[in-house]
Amino acid sequence: MRIAFYAPLKSPNHPVVSGDRQMARMLVKALEHGGHSVELASELRIYLRRPEPESFDALKIEVRGEAARLTKLWDRDGKPDLWFSYHPYYKAPDLIGPELASAFAVPYVTAEASYSRRRNTGLWADSQALVARAIKQAALNICFTQRDRQGLTNAIPDAALGMLSPFIDTSVFQELPVRGCPTRLVTVAMMRSGDKVESYRMLAQALGRIGHLPWTMSVVGDGPARDEVRAQFAGLPADRIEWLGAIEPAAVPDVLYRGGIYLWPGYGEAYGVAYLEAQAAGLPVVAQDIAGVPEVVRDGQTGFLTPPGDVAAFASAIARLLAHNDERIIMAAEARRFVLEERSLDGAAARLAELISKISAS
């Protein structure tokens, strides 16, 4: 099929590294891996940082221009067979695809769409109404987590839903890793306000509780909250923390291979691609049993998921893996098997092909 792909929040070509951009790229790869021809329909970013009507109105003007451009293009070169919209939600609704798909009788599909009733106030209520309308229109809404699926089911009972587990391109992790240092802890996360800072704060507090144990930590990440993040670790010995800053995605596997345990509390994580990468590199994970994290970490098998907000439990889980290397090795092997065998690009491509074939056959 010829598929028009669109990610309103962040184009696959966006210069800023993030989980959203990475998953958009992975979806394009998976679709192409399944034999489809994928074209990026638009790079117009629809992101409403704050509920400001003026910003929304300005975006709508740009949307009209993009819709006119695509209409002219499709009239000349023919319409696509399907419109695929990645991650539309109240701050980033797809304002282009639904109307074009309807006008050209093209099946409309979403992936990782979300709906939150608590956002139904002011301008957010208007943008969520557009998301809901798109979800109802969609021939299929692909959910990555049971949490998102339940949210859509509760809000839009008649929505057409399908499941696709979060995945990564495991090709860079196929070679057996050189065994890293079992007491080296690793985290990879952006440094921005909100949930990321809260996760860093909890991480620093937990490390402060296990200072009597032998460990060092490598931190990959940077961002506008860098100073606030580093301040959280000020009470820890400076020689125990290695601040690597932002590095190229291609360099991340090497950092993971050098480690022994992956740590990230995970406040607000939709699921967390970084957890999958860490496990593919053979690192058991310590995270919270929160948001979408249980979709990518198997508690007691590929790591430990601790109760939300419980710093003592989080620290205890880290200490357990530091003190019991045999258990860490067993979890590391299972973590690697889990991702390479169950969360690979090949598996995702096959699942996507199965889901899309039902649309084309209907």
From TrEMBL:
<dbReference type="Pfam" id="PF13692">
    <property type="entry name" value="Glyco_trans_1_4"/>
</dbReference>
<dbReference type="InterPro" id="IPR050194">
    <property type="entry name" value="Glycosyltransferase_grp1"/>
</dbReference>
<protein>
    <recommendedName>
        <fullName>Group 1 glycosyl transferase</fullName>
    </recommendedName>
</protein>
<dbReference type="GO" id="GO:0016757">
    <property type="term" value="F:glycosyltransferase activity"/>
</dbReference>
